[in-house]
Please model this.
Amino acid sequence: MPAVSQTFSVEPRHDWSRAEVRALFDLPFPELLHLAASVHRATFDPAEVQVSTLLSIKTGGCPEDCGYCPQAARYHTGVEATKLMSTEAVLEKARQAKAAGASRFCMGAAWRSPKDRDIPKVAAMISEVKALGLETCATLGMLSAGQAQALKDAGLDYYNHNLDTAPEFYNQVIHTREMQDRLDTLSHVRDAGMKTCCGGIVGMGEHRDQRAGLLQTLANLPAHPDSVPINRLVQVEGTPLSGTEQLDPFEFVRTVAVARVLMPRSMVRLSAGRESMSDELQALCFLAGANSIFYGEKLLTTGNPDAERDMALFARLGLRPMPVVEQGETVHADIVEPAHTCAA
Ligand code: SAM
Ligand code: DTB
Ligand code: SF4
Model:
């Protein structure tokens, strides 16, 4: 049978139907990868990968019940709750991340939402990390409009807040806050003028249609998230989702590829779950349009590949860390034709 011709546009669209997204997922694997790789090289240099480092500035003891999370106080996962780190200790980690080659430093706290009294402390961390010349990102839970503005004023470039899954699967994973709460926080972040980092987790027992639903919801937000972390569930003993059937690795690659097609100008981050991926699986994800990773031995509480393994992988694949230009803008390849045809 002759190959099917796939047309694509790199102009952001916000009106994706579930059927359209599902049709992308259902493409033969080589066609989907060709399409995603074509979109990727129309908007970015496919040899460049943005590198972020993550630090848990306040670990564990969280009151929420997210079924995947080792930091929820109610699950017995062996994660010890800590207090908020000191600014000096955070800065030391940020200096190390910069020396190791990271361009963005993301600070995560196991909060449902920050208390107003926490904001000046986090704001001090943000402004000092930014003064080191790093892009700043934080993930602190739900934010009010005022808190978002205070973080922006401190110099925060990105706020990470994930939708996590499709609206119709959400209540099987989280019960202590609604999808709408997440959407509200994202709009406060956008209104304050920050960039959004928003994605989700796959491998939680959802069906393909629900993976399509997550990506559809992300792409139909008022603005595409600037970064889209695609996490593969890290199964932690003691969490309700521990023991979930493993996702087929090719289905993970498909998810990355569909994210790339739906959100052509966003950074698609190969996020949690990389430690247990082979180099070959990660290479397929880069071919499918992933162009960002978390770099450094630890995510928040779970492991990530050693820096040496990542450096070796970059060298073997001929990938380079993406440079950052002034004011935290990442460099995009400027080939942005409105529509292309690609014989897949
Ligand atoms: N507490 C804040 C919140 O929930 O927004 C910030 C930190 S929270 C750990 C950030 C994100 O990490 C979650 O939204 C989820 O997508 C991801 N995450 C947490 N545990 C994970 C796991 N076991 N596997 C994959 N991703 C996970
Ligand atoms: C995101 O989407 N993934 C990161 C970051 N945003 C904050 C967190 C992954 C956490 C994995 C489990 C852990 O290490 O605790
Ligand atoms: Fe708490 Fe965030 Fe973990 Fe949910 S994902 S339990 S809100 S730390």
About this structure: Residues 68-69, 71, 108, 110-111, 139, 141, 161-162, 164, 201, 231, 233-234, 236, 272, 300 surround S-adenosylmethionine (ligand 1) (CB under 6 Å). The CA atoms of residues 144 and 319 lie 39 Å apart.
